[in-house]
Amino acid sequence: MDAICNWCDALLSNPIWFYLITTVLKLVLMFAVILAFVVISVWIERRVAGWIQDRPGPNRAGLPLFLLQRFGSKEKQPLKELLHFFGIPEGSCIAKLCQWLRFDREIPFFGLIQPCLDGGKLFLKQELTPSYVRKAYFIVAPMLVLGPPMVAAAVIPFASSVETAYGSISMCVANLGIGPLWVFAISGLSVYGLTLAGWASNSKYPFIGGMRATAQLISYEVAMGLSVIPLFMMFGTLNLQEIVQAQAANGWTLLPLWGEGLSPQRWALMLPLLISFLVFVTCVFAEANRTPFDMAECETDLVGGYHTEYSSMKFASFFMGEYAAMVIGSAIVVTLFLGGWSIGFGADAALAGICPWLAVCCQFAMFILKLLAFIFFFVWVRWTLPRFRWDQVMKLGWLVFLELTVANIFLTAAVLYFVK
Amino acid sequence: MFESAFCQIVFYIFALLAAGCALGVVISRNPVTSAMNMALCFGFVAAIFFGLGAQFLGIVQLIVYAGAILVLFLFVTMMLDIKAEEKPASRNCWLPSAPALGAVLIGTVFFGLVSNLSLALPGAQDSGCPAKALCSSIGELALSPTAAPAAEAPAAARFGGALPKLDPAAAARALKPGISPEEAAAATSYPDVKLLAQCLYTRYNIAFVILGFALLAGTVGATALARRIRKN
């Protein structure tokens, strides 16, 4: 036992091994979070869609209790029997709550059965590659859509750094000095997947879908990059971990209520920051190819868009890529504008004073919570707004957002220069 | 020791891969394959930049070239008739001279490398170059002791001598004058965005603005050519 401890100690004392081990652990955690979130966001999407459109399906479909009677259960009303067994009166709060949750009619599954069956269906479907496609690109394209969002996640910090006996661990996989640019660059590469899918399918509608995807992603990447420049001007750094630390100390970008965030300059900056937030979030929607910007897979004019010729898991990986892009987009919005992992109101420093690992755990939970909230927002928008027309999308990108973001940069510079 | 050896190995791997992809661009008959090879080549060049510590340049390479320009290339290539492009090119009278021209080109490039022409780049000899500026602002601190030019080639001397080595501690000291020696020594990466920005927007500001106007003129010209003027 001692020998093992000593060996571990020696291993961790070597800075290179320490770095490698912690990086691999962080990498595994990050991957697990993203893959889990791809599944969770599909689930959220179904439930919220059902909720918004007033469809009972995804929210209410459980195992109906009358089935139990078919299988030989003699009890007519299991819930009543159960309440009686525990001695709970029928008119009490608990009984009403049970009734509200429909326990008297079915065993609820919270809509979890549907995603499971969906996954099974996609796995078991026939994998069909049409004979007229360009094989190599046809196979590579779905991977090119799914891969980039996973890589882009490397720079997103999910907790503050923690000091251990062997050295300090910064809770993001790669603490690069160019964090947000890395995310833009890598997630911009997923456009190759869409374009190649459209071209390799060798069929008209997918081709138009691929072309639309390319044009849209390029147009909105410009506005996206320009929209966050005011933020960098304010923070003076491109390192995401440092940006979040500044927000934890001095108030989130959109909620400067503690620390030095209450200065007049910071309040004057709220207008440009709000503009940047609106433009950036819209661009994230466009980059993730989600309604109202899903021109590339607009089924009313394009059959199915760039993935018309795909089936089974190749088709599914396009959608996994879309959801992964949505998760990464939410993560970067949360990190830049909503405080990232910071709990806020000075709680980070207080918790770190008590126990650094407790602080890290709370911050991680906070980050996940914010991420979930923003994914909910994503889904909410999707099921609320109708799809744009193609020329409207292009007009919005080039004629509104480009000018607005450039003007916003000058406005920020003026505020930084004149208001002290 | 470990780090430098590792960096060298990574550099040579990525350099070979980049060269291979560049060859693929020329060799492949399918224009889309060529374009994809070029994208890979840009990716590997970006990786080389990352390996050298120039993260910002690497990411700009990815955003601008791989993410935007090449996608436009692909956009246009996909409109071509691929079957016609894949046919072998018709023989013409200039074809025999191609190998000779290629050999001359490669020979010139190697001659340039050997005669240290790379030091004749504008700015290598004046104080606006970030490496040089850093040295002059903080004296000998930035000069690594091994870079003493004992027996430099005369060409190198003529063009301002070998460039001094940048080190992170010196860069940290140059950007934050009040930094403590321990903190400066602990710096592991260059604030390359700041170094580049300082160089570009102070020393080369006018050239930068002129370049911007040249690009703007190009854009306006292209728009004017592409736009059909409707009469009525």
Mean pLDDT of chain B: 72
Q: Indicate the proportion of strand residues of chain A.
A: under 5%
CATH class of the largest domain in chain B: Mainly Alpha
Q: In which range does the helix fraction of chain B lie?
A: 55-70%
- Computed Rg of chain B: 23 Å
Question: What name goes with the CATH superfamily of the largest domain in chain B?
Answer: NADH-ubiquinone/plastoquinone oxidoreductase chain 6, subunit NuoJ
Largest interface chains and counts? A-B, 27 and 22 residues
Computed structural class of chain B: mainly alpha
Describe the model.
The complex is a heterodimer of chains A (420) and B (232). Helix content of chain A is 68%, strand content 2%. With 420 residues, chain A is mainly alpha-helical. Chain A has one domain (15-61, 129-418). In chain A, the strands form two sheets. A two-stranded antiparallel sheet of chain A has the order 1-2. Chain B is mainly alpha-helical and 232 residues long. Chain B is built from eleven helices and no strands. Chain B has helices at 2-27, 31-51, 55-77, 82-86, 97-114, 130-138, 154-158, 168-175, 181-186, 192-203, 205-226. The chains are: A mainly alpha (420), B mainly alpha (232). The A-B interface holds A 16, 137, 176-178, 181-182, 184-186, 188-189, 191-192, 195-196, 199, 207, 210-211, 214-215, 217-218, 221, 225, 238 and B 2, 32, 36, 39, 55-56, 59-60, 62-63, 66-68, 71-72, 74-75, 78, 189, 191-193.
Short description:
In chain A, 68% of the residues lie in helices and 2% in strands. Chain A is mainly alpha-helical and 420 residues long.
Keywords:
heterodimer; A: 420 residues; mainly alpha; two-stranded antiparallel ribbon; two-stranded antiparallel sheet; 4 strands; B: 232 residues; Four Helix Bundle (Hemerythrin (Met), subunit A); 3 domains; 67% helix
